[in-house]
Amino acid sequence: MYTTIAVATGGALGSVARYGVTRWLASLIGQNLWGTFLVNVTGAFALGLLVGLTEERVSLDPVLRTGIAVGVLGGYTTFSTLMYESMREIEGRALWQSGLNLGGSVAIGLAAVALGLAAGRSAA
């Protein structure tokens, strides 16, 4: 029951954070597409960091870890939104933007997870 509450609360927080980041970036550059890109990359890094830190180095209550990983970061990252926005770009014939967004999210997201894991695993 506590885990479910932690995930639900974390999901609400993560969703609000995602909304805030995408709106902030849209106000700067006028497109939500890049806000989603930023959220996916920072979410990938944060998840890698959390896992890297809590594998062996930092003891974290399992309920809290699940609340952060599944709730906060699950609410924050936006794969479904990535797919939807990319499809809208394809439908609008902006193929290069869609390809850059999809390819960049995967490549840089993987790199961000690797960096987060390395940072978490090497922290004192």
Termini Cα gap: 33 Å
Q: Rg, please?
A: 16 Å
Shape call = globular
The low-confidence parts are: none
Compute the number of strand runs: 0
Number of domains: 1
Order of helices and strands: HHHHH
> Which percent range describes the beta-strand content?
under 5%
The helix content is over 70%
| Number of distinct helices | 5
What is the mean predicted local confidence, pLDDT? 92
- Counting helices, strands and paired strands, the structural category is mainly alpha
What is the makeup of the main sheet? none
What report would you give on this structure?
The protein is mainly α and 124 residues long. It has one domain (2-122). It is built from five helices and no strands. Helix 1 (2-29) runs antiparallel to helix 2 (33-56). The chain is globular. The chain starts with a helix and ends with a helix. The model has no long low-confidence stretch (mean pLDDT 92).
Could you give a quick summary of the protein structure above?
By secondary structure, this protein is mainly α. Helix content is 87%, strand content 0%.
Descriptors for this entry?
single chain, 0% strand, globular, 124 residues, mainly alpha
Write the layout of secondary structure elements.
Layout: H1 2-29, H2 33-56, H3 62-76, H4 79-91, H5 95-122
Helix pairs in contact: 1-2, 1-3, 2-3, 2-4, 2-5, 4-5
